[in-house]
Write a structure and sequence with these properties.
single chain, 374 residues, alpha/beta, Rossmann fold, 3 domains, five-stranded parallel β-sheet, 10 helices, 12 strands, 34% helix, 16% strand, kinase
Amino acid sequence: AFQQADGTTSRKYGGTGLGLSISREIARLLGGELQVRSKPGEGSTFTLYVPIAAVESATASAPGAPARYDNSGAVVPTALPTGFEVSDDRDDIGKDPFVLIVEDDPTFASILLDAAHDAGLKGVVSTAGAGTLAMARKLQPTAITLDLGLSDIDGFVLLDLLKHDPQTSHVPIHVISGVDRSRSVIGMGAFGVTEKPAERAELVRVFTSLREHAQAHKPARKKVPTAAPASRPVPELAGAKVLIVDDDIRNIFSLTSVLESYDVEVLHAEGGREGIEILEQTDGVDAALIDIMMPEMDGYETMQQIRQRPALAELPLIAVTAKAMKGDRQKCLDAGASDYIAKPVDIELLLALLRVWVARSREATAAMPAEAAE
C-alpha cells in the first residue's frame, strides 16, 4: 500500500495514500497499472499504463494483480447499531407503545427491558450512543431511558442532541445513571432522573410513569422532513469564545463560518504552539477545538501541554480527528481532551458538544469567585 515516509501525527504533509490506492485499483480494473518512483528530498514520479485496445477474451485481470475490494481502513459504525447483546422487541413493535433503552451494560439493559415489560411497555435496546439519534428518528419511541456513562459518547451530549433535534425533542427522556452531576440534566430537558443502583420496583414505577405520560399527551408522530431544515438559533452559544487550532486553513474557514453564524466569537491558530500562546494571552476562552494531525506539534502533544498549565487545566478541549478507529476516542481523552469528534465534522454533534462544554466552562468560571470568597 502507498504510505508516507513519515507516518507520525505531527508530520508536515497530510494524506494517507488512500487516493493512490484507489487509483491503482482502477488502473488494474482497466487492465493497466500505476507505478511510482520516489526519492526523499527530490520528489515522486507517477506513471499510469492503460491499454489502448480492449481484448475480448480477457475476462479477468492479469495474473498476480487481482483487484482487491477488502476494506483495510477504519470501521465506521452504521446508523443503526448491530450486534446487540440483548434480545428486545424491535421486530414486534407494531403500534404498541415502546421505550428506547440506551444502556451499554447488557446485564442492566436486560433488567430495564424486563421492568419496561412489567409496566406494559415494549422495549428496544441501544447498547451504544453512536446511532441512537438516527434510531430515535426512525423508530419514534414513546419514551427514552438514557445512561449518561456511555463508552462511546458523553451521555450529556447525546441528551442535548435528542432534545434539540426537531424529530425527537418531544420524546420524554428519563435518565437512569450513576454518573456524577446527573441531577443537572433536568435543566437540559430530561423528564426525570433515577440514580443507579435502583431497585426493580423503582424502575417499574419509572416506566409506568413514562407510559402514563405518553397516554396523556400522545404527541403526533414526527415526519422526516424532505428538505434540509433551516439552521436554528442556538442561544446557549451566543457570545461564547472558541479557539480553533488546525493547520489546514480550509478547515478553520469552514468551522469559523458555521460558528460565527451562531454568534460565536472565533479565534484561530495554525499550529499547537500558536494555539497555546493565544490561550495564555486571551481571557474568557470557553472551549478549544484541537486538530490531531498537525505538523511539528500534533494535537496530542498540544493538549498535554495545555493541561500542564494550571490556568488552562480545566479548559474544555474537543479533539478533532480524521481517524475513526476503535480506541481513538479514549486515546484523545488520555491525552487531555474533554471530548472528541471525528471528521467530517457533524455540525449538529459539534453544536451539542459546544453547548454542553461551554455551559460547563461558564459554570466553572462562575463558581471561581464564590470559592475565592470562602
